[in-house]
Amino acid sequence: MTRKVIAAGLVLPDLTRTVAEEHLEELTKLIETAGGTVVSTVLAKRPRRDPATFVGSGKAEQIKSLVDHHEAKLVVFDEDLSPAQIRNLEEMIGVPVIDRSALILDIFASRARSRESRTQVELARLEYMLPRLTRQWSHLSRQTGGAGAKRGVGETQLEMDRRVVRTRISRLKDELKKIEQTRETQRKSRDAAFTVALVGYTNAGKSTLFNRLTEGHAVAVDKLFATLDAKSQRTAFEMPKETVVIDTVGFIRKLPHHLVASFRSTMEEAVSADLVLHVIDASHPQFAEQREIGQQVLADLGVEYEKVIEVYNKSDLDGFRGSAVAAGLRGKHRATAQPRNLATHISALTGEGIKDLIDIIRTREHAGGEMMVLEVPYRASRVAARLHEVAEIYEQTVGDHATIFRAWVPHDAVHLFEAYSADVLLEARDVVSR
């Protein structure tokens, strides 16, 4: 049965009430994603966080009244709470209290499918839980069992639990290192391919775009964090070279730092990719903030600015604001004096703008090679076969003794065919004729 939940947030001096309400709305969606039903929301306005109850005792009493009135079973706060704050709030309110990080960790745990994502989530949850173990054994803290230096049962149990958790964390980190080595091997196996990573805020439409570009069947639903495992598949379109599209885990504001650290190897698919498509839901009221969060994550990962293309998605929806997007881009780049990123508008759902996006990807791929006219003798069949594997052939003409190709060849393969270049052969024939 779905649990009734109270969602609570805080308006601080550096945050307007409108923005705080938007953040609380996102928390509501997170709660719904986790299977809860928000029956009421609370926003407290304070000059600073209350060290004991986060929102202050008066607001905590108000939350208790709402819990009693709605028969709610859980209260979720939109900020990280200290162990003491959680303990105090639970004593005052009378139902379990969790913070945003715990909620997101629960969602990730329920969505993790692969060995890698399950390991990453378990590691993040244990690192989150470690400093919070104290309150779980507080009921034993009074059982001192004697005087002097003798420790209580609760303290002994707490130390045992911490040791178990630290041991498990160490093992999970070792396991992740092995998984990361496997992922690195997979990346190297794709070296010959042109890789395109899809990144962006959660629910921006990355999986829908992945399916559109690859004719794949990635889960694409209107839910936060539908994708946790990086998936890769060849594009369904004709491209200059083999092109692989990679779908990655979504970003979100206030993402728990333990999760960021655990999922770093997955997110680094964007670092190693040849091209990064930053997918932005331009129909969302806070699309500009979501874009900034994505840009910050990419910068933190060390993704080169020049290889990012901003893809403004959901142009089929009434809320899409193409003019606002354009104005925002102009203002942003004037302020930062950065070269403007290439941007395009699409609807991954209907296919609108996909042809233009494919052309942009092709242009980027073409920049990694050069056009060549090659005269390959019939006896050099292996050379011709290799050319078909690595190059994009635009024209093929049969001659008396050779096949003449006009083809785009990647820079790293040009040396394989230079001896068959029409210009080189022409120069050689001129030397012989003299």
Oligomer: single chain
How would you describe the shape? elongated
In whole angstroms, how far apart are the ends? 91 Å
- Rg, rounded, reads 28 Å
Provide mean pLDDT, rounded: 81
Strand order of the largest sheet: 6-7-5-8-9-10
DSSP helical segment count: 15
Outline the low-pLDDT stretches: 135-151, 329-340
Strand content: 15-25%
| Main pleated-sheet profile | 6 strands, mixed
Kindly state the percentage of residues in helix. 40-55%
Please count the beta strands (DSSP E, at least 2 residues each): 13
One letter per element, helices H and strands E, the order comes to EHEHEHEHHHEHEEHHHEHEHEHEHEEH
Structural class: alpha/beta
How would you explain this protein's 3D organization?
It is built from 15 helices and 13 strands. The protein is an alpha/beta fold and 434 residues long.
Map the helices and strands:
Blueprint: E1 4-11, H1 17-33, E2 37-45, H2 57-70, E3 74-77, H3 83-93, E4 97-99, H4 100-111, H5 115-129, H6 153-189, E5 194-200, H7 206-214, E6 231-234, E7 243-247, H8 257-262, H9 264-267, H10 269-272, E8 275-281, H11 287-301, E9 308-313, H12 322-336, E10 343-345, H13 354-366, E11 369-377, H14 381-390, E12 392-398, E13 402-410, H15 422-433
Parallel strand pairs: 1-2, 1-3, 3-4, 5-7, 5-8, 8-9, 9-10
Antiparallel strand pairs: 6-7, 11-13, 12-13
Helix pairs in contact: 1-4, 4-5, 5-6
